[in-house]
Amino acid sequence: MPIYEYACSACGKAFEYLARTLADKPAKCPSCGAKKLSKQLSAFAKPAPMVRGGCGSCPSEAACPAAGAPKSGCGCAGACGGH
Ligand SMILES: [Zn+2]
Question: Residue 27 and residue 5: Cα distance in Å, rounded?
Answer without folding.
Answer: 13
